[in-house]
Design a protein that fits this description.
The chain is α/β, with parallel strands linked by helices and 394 residues long. It is built from 14 helices and 16 strands.
Length: 394
């Protein structure tokens, strides 16, 4: 008699929620715990937690395959971390899985995981969040940017299938790989029930941003805009939710602009419900990011009923979410334009009420799409004689 079992999914990401916060980390957190009802889900990462290297939470098993190595060095992603984590991924050669899935950053692990998947004869899927052109790579890394661009170009060709985290990222991938590339678009999602169930935090503020504090998020531009509004006689308050290597510099900038009394930095927010409550206590969400693969915090802000200001940078894909909303404003990427757009919304806020299109981004719907991309790998197992109940999609 054949013993039935769930398929085993191996998810590989060097940063996980809640230890490191961003759209990618929240995406894996939401998808992994939902997928756990359909498969045995194992997450392979660095050791972000104290204690044993293996732990289980929400029916998801987490494995530390490397020690915790700082993600950033000098404000940029650490090459040392990327190399060491990629080498640690060789540990998966000895682990059981049916589908191997990885986050595309920081690229080097994709080469190692391609080798692992090939030797194990398993399906290899990569989630791609954003695509940088050669010009952006040169701006980010200087002369080394061309080598990094080529690494990205080569890495795109290694997965059996790519999951694009936004429609625009999917389009950019197809422009490089060709129209017949094996790509599923599954954007980041939102838990609308959780948003609706949160009451605003008691401490109100005028403006809010939720972001990792890294250079390309340009939170400093928001601080400059707040200073401009104060100079115009509009004494707005602002809440900055998030953490990252730019935190000391941003605090110093706030002091230099004499905004200590007006800007609150919250790097201590541990729960997503608390994020929603703090967002709901604001009037306008300002997101001046230069580069964004999707912009999950913009989606969350809209779901919380906030007006949203973001920038028109071509690589800021969050602008597409703002453009779709009656409460979204896309402005030029300058502090003056951000200040003007914010002032208009504070004076004339957008219409209240939930927008129906937000339901398109329900996490359960996105889980079905991702499961479909994984399910093609399960089909190969069925062909080898495993029973039909191994399907990921109910």
């Amino acid at each position: 008699m054949t013993r039935h079992r769930h398929p085993v999914i191996a998810l590989v990401s060097d940063a996980i929620y809640p230890y490191h916060r961003g759209g990618k980390e929240l995406r894996y957190h939401e998808l992994a715990r939902r997928m756990a009802g359909r498969a045995d889900v194992h997450v392979y990462t660095m050791q972000w937690w104290p204690g044993p290297r293996v732990r289980t939470e929400d029916s998801v098993t987490f494995h530390a395959i490397s020690p915790l190595i700082p993600l950033y060095a000098g404000g940029r992603r650490s090459m040392r971390q990327a190399v060491l984590f990629a080498l640690a991924c060789l540990r998966l050669l000895g682990r059981r899985f049916d589908v191997l899935e990885a986050d595309h950053m920081p690229y080097l692990q994709i080469f190692v995981l391609r080798l692992v998947a090939t030797l194990r004869r398993k399906r290899f899927v990569v989630t791609w969040h954003e695509v940088w052109d050669a010009g952006y790579w040169r701006e980010y890394l200087g002369p080394a940017g061309l080598a990094a661009w080529f690494t990205q170009w080569l890495a795109m060709r290694l997965p059996d299938h790519i999951i694009a985290a936004s429609t625009q990222t999917g389009d950019r991938l197809r422009a490089i790989l060709g129209a017949r590339a094996s790509i599923t678009v599954a954007p980041n999602g939102i838990d609308l029930d959780a948003v609706r169930g949160c009451r605003p935090a008691p401490a109100a503020t005028d403006l809010v941003v939720v972001s990792r504090l890294v250079a390309h998020k340009r939170v400093g531009m928001l601080l400059d805009a707040v200073a401009m509004l104060h100079a115009q006689g509009v004494p707005v308050t602002c809440r900055v939710i998030g953490d990252g290597p730019e935190r000391p510099a941003l605090r110093a900038q706030a002091r230099a602009l004499a905004l200590d009394h007006a800007v609150e930095f919250r790097h201590d927010v541990a729960e997503q419900r608390e994020v929603y409550a703090l967002m709901k206590a604001a009037k306008v969400f300002v997101f001046p990011s230069a580069r964004e693969g999707f912009g999950i915090s913009v989606l969350e802000a809209l779901a919380c009923g906030l007006d949203v200001v973001t920038t028109s940078d071509p690589d800021n894909l969050a602008r597409h979410l703002a453009e779709r909303s009656v409460r979204g404003v896309v402005c030029e990427p300058t502090a003056k334009a951000v200040a003007e757009a914010t002032r208009r919304l504070l004076t004339n806020p957008g219409p209240a009420g939930a927008e129906a299109w937000l339901a398109d981004y329900d996490w359960d719907t996105m889980t079905d799409r991702v499961a479909g991309a994984f399910g093609a790998g399960i089909a190969a197992r069925r062909a080898a004689g495993y029973p039909d109940d191994l399907a990921l999609v109910p």
